[in-house]
Amino acid sequence: MNPFSYVTATDPAEARALAAEGAKYLAGGTNLVDLMREGIETPERLVDIGRLPLAGIEDLPGGGLRIGALARNTRVAADPRVRDRYPLLSEAIVNGASPQLRNRATVGGNLLQRTRCGYFYDRHSACGKREPGAGCDALDGFNRMHAVLGAGESCIAVHPSDMCVALAALDAVVNIAGRDPVPLADFHLLPGDTPHVETVLRPGELVTSIDLPPVPPGHSVYLKVRDRASYAFALVSVAVFTHLEDGRASRVRIALGGVAPKPWRAYEAERLLTGTSLDDHLIDQAAERALADARPREHNAFKPELARRLIRRALKGACS
Amino acid sequence: MPSIQVRLSVNGRRHELELDTRVSLLDCLREHLALTGTKKGCDQGACGACTVLVDGERVNSCLVLAVQCQDAEITTIEGLGEPGQALREAFVRHDGLQCGYCTPGQICSAVAMLGEYDAGVPSAVGAASLTDAEIRERLAGNLCRCGAYNGILAAVREVAR
Lengths: 320, 161
Hints:
A: 5-stranded antiparallel beta sheet, 13 helices, globular
């Protein structure tokens, strides 16, 4: 680990002032400390934001909920309002990481966690996320865990979060100090030619909270398939939310994890199902549509079919 | 090397240390306070061998910097007291170990897990009681390369009753 200086911030404005070039914000540290130990992140200064007053969970007027960026994952998953109004979020969180990590990891940090691509972690491999312009050894490498949607020739790493998949399906909005809020679905960027630029955040900007808009009562489910029963990143996961009025789906949300460089909303599949009675035939079509643009690599050709099956299972559960 | 003053309490005893900013809580415990009960397995948050309690919550001490624990109360396997003792004895009775390297982490984790369960913290299993599946899920953050999981489960089940 490279040597670094350490300062603590007591309010968001001070944090931003301290976050000069070469600095990183430190919250839970579950991802950053690991990346620093691996020599992938090499900040000269850590600005510890762990004590900023941003850990609360508050009701918003109109029935929404604001979750502070420093709220720990365990706390969010256990919050009675989250479990009552946004069970999808609670479910996704407890399907990720381990209890020890969830006790420490914050919502803001979960949003900003970096990929678990083995080539990103291995400093002897080519990785354009680690070193801009370096190329990507995963393209023809061991790419079983990698993306089938939204990736390109510069990078095929996936975003590892479970929480963000649920947030995408819940139309969450990210609040950032000193600028307009950004919808969660637009917060993470596709790699394009700049895989090292992963979000809309500019250097030194600080996520302060995440807003969950009110949702009508409905059916939601988070399904995750992984290599072992627990404590593993998703091969594929899906978050589904449906709200039916008079037997017709007036709201359908489908988000996928483990298949793309960002939490992936299947907008076209949602449109195909909205206003329908969600019959099996249409669900099959929607699952096809969601993966129509999938471009698997040598070792992950199983992912599109796995994703289609998960979507069908989640949606069929939604209408029963 | 940037260093920093760290005040923390471990197993009820206060310490003031001058530490390199890079020192993890795990290395602080083992190398600076000679509390070697807490083990270093993977040093990357994947195995749980380094599990300790920070202000009563279980964490991977390898992923926490010591400076993040300013004024915190740390509890390690050496300071668990009564619930730790009951689990230790149950682990022996049920062969909850072979090499024993993961055991301090397993026991710290299990003590905190029982508290989380009583406090209503949810899990991915979501059973109505502390079933075997529920215990396994809630201890999923602690790996045992000897594969003594059945013994660990039996020991925790017995103490949970």
